[in-house]
Design brief:
This protein is α+β, with helices and mostly antiparallel strands. Helices cover about 40% and strands about 15% of the residues.
Length: about 210
């Protein structure tokens, strides 16, 4: 089982159904249709229908088969513990970073994140098909700023330092070189259970 998987565009509509979404969550621990139907209080026939659809899209897999008298019971399990819905699931309204390239807006950051999901999904699919490893790198951490001025200074230094690294290693005319995308983001951390982000007095938020 994968830790995280991106739901392919063709399967996105199927998983928007609340029953199928619940089944995916239930089957992080493998179970039979009868067991799941009992837990959810649904008819077994209905559960079987949804399980077959999810299996057809590659979101569920057969874990084992158990013989129960004259019946063979199929134990199914989700192919990943967590799933990400791709922006391409709603192609007509998918975020486009080029429409609002303003580094100070949270909505532009969201559009960048959506493009990141789309691009990494395509790269993973290509690497899997070619049976090759995908070279990526990501960082995640937290920093506490004493003031808005410190945050602004940090952002300026981060921008300058990143630009220097790009200038140092960028080889526009390198034979056989491969272009890589850099995405850097900074946003307030969400407190567990928080419903919204509030801004201290004297500061403003961009969205």
């Amino acid at each position: 089982m994968l830790d995280v998987a991106v739901i392919e565009e063709a399967a996105a509509e199927a998983t928007l159904d609340p029953i199928r979404a619940r089944l995916l969550a239930e089957l992080r621990e493998p179970a039979s249709a009868a067991n799941v139907a009992g837990r959810l209080g649904l008819p077994r026939q209905k559960v079987n229908y949804h399980l077959h659809m999810l299996e057809g899209f590659g979101l569920l897999e057969l874990v084992e088969e158990r013989r129960r008298g004259n019946v063979t019971e199929r134990v199914m399990g989700a192919t990943a513990r967590e799933y990400v819905m791709p922006p391409a699931a709603l192609p007509g309204v998918a975020p486009d970073p080029s429409l609002e390239p303003n580094r100070l807006t949270a909505r532009w950051m969201l559009a960048l994140a959506a493009r990141l999901v789309h691009d990494v999904e395509a790269l993973i699919t290509g690497a899997d098909n070619a049976k090759q490893r995908l070279a990526t790198f990501a960082m995640d951490g937290e920093v506490i700023f004493a003031s808005a001025a410190d945050r602004a200074a940090f952002t300026a230094e981060l921008e300058t330092g990143t630009a220097k690294l790009v200038e140092k290693y960028h080889s526009a005319n390198a034979s056989g070189g491969r272009k890589h995308r850099i995405v850097v983001a900074l946003h307030p951390s969400i407190k567990p259970g928080a419903q919204q982000i509030t801004h201290p007095a004297g500061t403003t938020g961009h969205n």
